[in-house]
Amino acid sequence: MTGILVGCLLFAPQGRDVAPGGLASTIREAVDTVDPVARRRAADRLAARPESLAEMCTAMRKFGDFAAAVPGRSRENVELWVGGRVEATELHLYTPKNYRPGVPAPLLVLGHGTGGNGRQMLPMWIEFAERTGTVLLAPSEAGANGGWAFSERERESARSAIRHVRRRFDIDENRIYCSGISRGGHLAWDVALRYPDLFAAIAPMIGGPRIKLVQGQNNTRYLENVAQLPIRDLQGAKDDRYLVANVRWAFTRLKELKAADAKLVEFPDLGHSFRLAAVDWVEFLGRSKRDPRPRRVVRMVAEPREVRAFWVEVQALDTAKVKVVPRLVATRAFTALDELGQRAYVAREVERHTARLEVVMSGPGDFTAKSRLLRSFRLLLDERMLVAGKGVVVKHNGVRRVHPLERSKRVLCREFVERFDRTFLPIAEVVVR
């Protein structure tokens, strides 16, 4: 069973409506609604307004009234929506001297180590920020400040902090980067693996992904999600042997997946340490830019809340086969393997319980999809991905179907209110079951 919703052509920009109750202010109010459930209702009210799809698209492309910011370091105590409630969080920020509202700036998100705070993360990146015009964001952990717990609360806290700063500063949606040290390195990996379209590049340091069969902590099952993502990982070879083994395993797997720009930088003489100057960050991050509509998208899924990648979204999993924590039996053959062999065995078995969706865009309006262990998915398409006056062809697991078009403002408004991405306005929803 299939369905499709399609939208508008974008017209030339017009004057911004800033009057109370006008389109621009209504969009702003919807985006700034804190509770996600209430935000969805606000999006639906927005879609019910009398403006055309074209007028809404124009307003969304021009979205954002940003105040000037004082250059230098600052600290904010803010309330973020985390885990279904408001959570007080301390944010440390650095604004470069050349930041100007109206000129979208890169954003570098920095995760601190165990027992640390965001303030400690800024000094090492200030020179980079000034050279590149990058805004720095370093949240302090609001919960138990121990090691990275691989929890949904931690991931949501990081994403909520990014959302907050994107509303305060004029941030380029396609140049958001993430780095972190130790616990913060785990953060960079974990958030990127589960939300692969959030960052344009990551730079984890002495932190890594994990292969562990407790509490869903095996996030190496999602490595294919970031095969397109530029990565530089700095790691001391004499660090904790399990961390080093996990990081090496991740890059071995990424090489198998033909990752285009993923590199592990090891320091043979160092333990839980690294040398920041080993990478030319101005060059690496400066050339790393997210493509909001990549030709090929792969989404590995086990958690029903982590289903999106760019313009692809899994809607329903085969819950009888997809397992967050699969039960594995230690057979005699398994116990006979060395540590590397056991690691590879566990990774393969966990991947067998992970849903996979791959979609390739051959051209506008023409898509090929392959999937396993899922029941339905949808494609969210913007104007550039469609052919005017024609249906959308989707060949899924060998079955080709042409989907007719149906106009709706609802998809556009729901997507923008949730993600407020000015560079990608989905105006078509193709549902495949």
Count of discrete domains: 3
Helix fraction by DSSP (H/I, runs of at least 4): 25-40%
CATH architecture of the largest domain: 3-Layer(aba) Sandwich
Q: SSE order in H/E notation?
A: EHHHEEEHEHEHEEHEHEEEHHEEEEEHE
pLDDT averaged over residues:
93
Describe the structure.
The chain has helices at residues 23-31, 36-47, 53-61, 126-132, 152-168, 183-194, 241-256, 281-287, 332-335, 339-352, 410-419; strands at residues 2-6, 72-82, 85-95, 105-111, 135-139, 171-181, 201-205, 231-236, 262-267, 296-301, 308-309, 312-317, 355-363, 366-372, 374-381, 392-396, 399-403, 428-432. The chain is of the alpha/beta class and 433 residues long. It has 3 domains: 11-61, no CATH class; 72-287, Rossmann fold, CATH 3.40.50.1820; 296-322 and 354-432, no CATH class. The strands form 3 sheets. Strands 2-3-5-4-6-7-8-9 form an 8-stranded mixed beta sheet, with helices on both faces. A 5-stranded antiparallel beta sheet has the order 1-18-15-12-11, with no helix packed on it. Strands 10-13-14-16-17 form a 5-stranded mixed beta sheet, with no helix packed on it. Helix 4 (126-132) links the parallel strand 4 and strand 5 (135-139). It is globular. Residues 1-17 have low confidence and may be disordered.
